[in-house]
Amino acid sequence: xxxxxxxxxxxxxxxxxxxxxxxxxxxxxxxxxxxxxxxxxxxxxxxxxxxxxxxxxxxxxxxxxxxxxxxxxxxxxxxxxxxxxxxxxxxxxxxxxxxxxxxxxxxxxxxxxxxxxxxxxxxxxxxxxxxxxxxxxxxxxxxxxxxxxxxxxxxxxxxxxxxxxxxxxxxxxxxxxxxxxxxxxxxxxxxxxxxxxxxxxxxxxxxxxxxxxxxxxxxxxxxxxxxxxxxxxxxxxxxxxxxxxxxxxxxxxxxxxxxxxxxxxxxxxxxxxxxxxxxxxxxxxxxxxxxxxxxxxxxxxxxxxxxxxxxxxxxxxxxxxxxxxxxxxxxxxxxxxxxxxxxxxxxxxxxxxxxxxxxxxxxxxxxxxxxxxxxxxxxxxxxxx
Length: 385
Hints:
By secondary structure, this protein is an alpha/beta fold. The chain is 35% helix and 32% strand. It has 14 helices and 13 strands. The protein has helices at residues 3-19, 25-29, 57-63, 78-84, 86-89, 105-110, 113-121, 153-162, 175-183, 224-233, 299-328, 335-342, 344-350, 354-357; strands at residues 31-41, 48-56, 67-75, 92-94, 100-103, 130-134, 190-199, 202-214, 217-222, 241-246, 253-271, 274-290, 362-373. The strands form 2 sheets. Strands 1, 2, 3, 4, 5, 6, 7, 8 and 9 form a 9-stranded mixed sheet that branches. A 4-stranded mixed sheet has the order 10-11-12-13, sandwiched between helices. It is globular, with a radius of gyration of 26 Å. The model is unreliable at 5-11 and 22-26 (pLDDT under 50).
């Protein structure tokens, strides 16, 4: 064996023994490890009110489980409120493990820039932190609800977003993505929302849909269901369901389609001074559930169901786009950004007028749905006389 290699191996092994141990135990004891924070505004003096969820290290030493505690303070700025927590905790807050920032509706309406500035400027918070907007009266109350999967509320909210691939009803937006959309032309940012629900009679947090922004200020909300159609336009559908409610005929019924794959293309068209956007979706689904004996499995039935599902998707995409145009006046779909990338010459001509063009923009939606299977059932369940 090469002597140089042996020498290197000995050095590595020796260093391993010399450098291990509880060398940083005291440092950890001096820190309050933050898992998440809620940011509110005091109506009396307009100060920031912060509620930090801190991991309780003593609970892990005693019972072997992670628990959390909450620390509250206020300040003229976010950093001022954070530093004031030292008066309560006697420890400096450590932000490198924080996963969640929750903003109250009031904070989001006034503008999110102070929050972004703290996260981007400080060396500890990661740019992959998730930011939520609270649909409750305050952001702090979301950190005091019962947890279902873990005692650390902020971590549970992070897990909710990770599980959203099978739901596709909230946008998954991390800090750096929000900042990119905020700084780019022709696109407005969005954030996921949180609200309180009852589970077995106890209050707990749940995903609530989408917070729509115009520049850095909150403009309004989309529901969970409407968010799905926003994600179709943005080509961010990873799964979820399409529920086709057929109200026509003598026996109204519902068919549930499970989404396996989707691809959306946005194509800007400009002719004779008229601008329009073509949205083309291609979606692979299967029949997951139905409450009818009508045969949607054979070739004829499948073609009929496909047509109904395509109309359902087209109609709802158009509806959500119109809502963004008329109610929010906010291009959350990035149509302007698409024009800037695909037709920079055109964007140079119309970019400065985009704020007045977007609300009147003509949209054409073409959905193409392919029904791949019907599960284990080869024909609908029949009910005897």
